[in-house]
């Protein structure tokens, strides 16, 4: 069976992090494995506490998966500290994990910081060169590219700058821009591809970034090209938001299993 690994933090509220990743893998018919980097006390309103795990146990988790089950594709999420960033980067290189989707998690949906300022340097110099694709949102792309983003031309310039940091490809998510459509921009080092979907008016968006990166990893594990994987992931997340539901008092949840537990390859991506 196709399998994929998520290296990320735990969200006790179930909407993001490891929990969202494993639901997404299951929706794609992919067996999910995990290496937990941090534990958060979190709900729909925000993050109230966070505990990064010792780097030794993070490495041991990855080693346990690689040595037995194997890794056909992986994604990273919350890495929290410089030492964890460096540890995960070293493990990805040591175990020769190639299809890596890096979600450079920096800030929670509620605004709570999830990456220490000192760890940003390690993200730029250690993790990004390991990435088959990195998937920042607009705010994260501004930080990584060291420029403001207000337009699609800004997005493309930011993608060029981030690409220079070492990832094979860059996918900048356009959900935080304005406009009738939500447009993500993929740059593969040679050309740009725009991924469009209708912008949905919904508060049920907790964990969208985690879910998108997990969906890309699942699709890569199943043998899709990067462009195809990004299209499929975009379509999946759009429908997960459309079918989302209110739970708790803050940002509601995506419906990860909107397609009755499996996201079939026959579903055509949004154009």
What does this entry look like structurally?
The protein has a domain of 165 residues: Ribokinase (UDP-N-acetylmuramoyl-L-alanine:D-glutamate ligase), CATH 3.40.1190. Helices cover 36% and strands 19% of the residues. It is built from eight helices and nine strands. The strands form two sheets. Strands 3-2-1-4-5-6 form a six-stranded mixed β-sheet, sandwiched between helices. The two termini are 29 Å apart.
**Weakly predicted, low-confidence segments:** none
What CATH calls the topology of the domain at 3-133 and 209-242 is UDP-N-acetylmuramoyl-L-alanine:D-glutamate ligase
Shape: globular
What is the fourth-level CATH superfamily of the domain at 3-133 and 209-242? Answer: Ribokinase
CATH C-level class of the domain at 3-133 and 209-242 is Alpha Beta
Query: Rg from C-alpha positions?
Result: 17 Å
Describe the strand arrangement of the main beta sheet, using strand numbers: 3-2-1-4-5-6
Query: What is the terminal-to-terminal distance?
Result: 29 Å
Structural class comes to: alpha/beta
The total count of helices amounts to: 8
N-to-C order of helices and strands: EHEEHEHEHEHHEEEHH
Strand content: 15-25%
Helix content: 25-40%
CATH arch. level architecture of the domain at 3-133 and 209-242: 3-Layer(aba) Sandwich
Mean pLDDT: 93
Q: Please give the number of β-strands.
A: 9
Describe the main β-sheet briefly: 6 strands, mixed
């Amino acid at each position: 069976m196709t399998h994929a690994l998520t290296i990320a933090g735990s969200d006790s509220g179930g909407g993001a992090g490891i929990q969202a990743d494993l639901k997404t893998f299951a929706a794609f018919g992919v067996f999910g494995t995990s290496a937990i980097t941090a534990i958060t006390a979190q709900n729909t309103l925000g993050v109230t506490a966070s505990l990064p795990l010792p780097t030794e146990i993070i490495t041991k988790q990855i080693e346990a998966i690689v040595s037995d089950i194997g890794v056909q594709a992986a994604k990273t999420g919350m890495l929290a500290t410089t030492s964890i960033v460096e540890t995960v980067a070293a493990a990805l290189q040591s175990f020769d994990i190639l299809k890596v989707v890096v979600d450079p998690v920096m800030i929670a949906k509620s605004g709570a910081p999830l990456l220490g300022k000192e760890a940003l340097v390690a993200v730029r110099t250690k993790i990004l060169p390991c990435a088959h694709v990195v998937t920042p949102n607009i705010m994260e792309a501004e930080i990584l590219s060291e420029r403001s983003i207000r337009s699609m031309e800004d997005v493309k310039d930011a993608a060029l700058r981030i690409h220079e940091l070492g990832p094979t490809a860059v996918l900048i998510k356009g959900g935080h821009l304005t406009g009738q459509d939500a447009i993500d921009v993929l740059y593969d080092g040679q050309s740009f591809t725009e991924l469009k979907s209708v912008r949905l008016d919904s508060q049920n968006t907790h964990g969208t970034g985690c879910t998108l990166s997990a969906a890309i990893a699942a699709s890569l594990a199943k043998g899709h090209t990067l462009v195809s994987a990004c299209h499929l992931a975009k379509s999946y997340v759009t429908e997960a938001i459309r079918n989302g539901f209110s739970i708790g008092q803050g940002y509601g949840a995506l419906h990860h299993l909107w397609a009755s537990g499996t996201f079939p390859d026959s579903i055509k991506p949004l154009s």
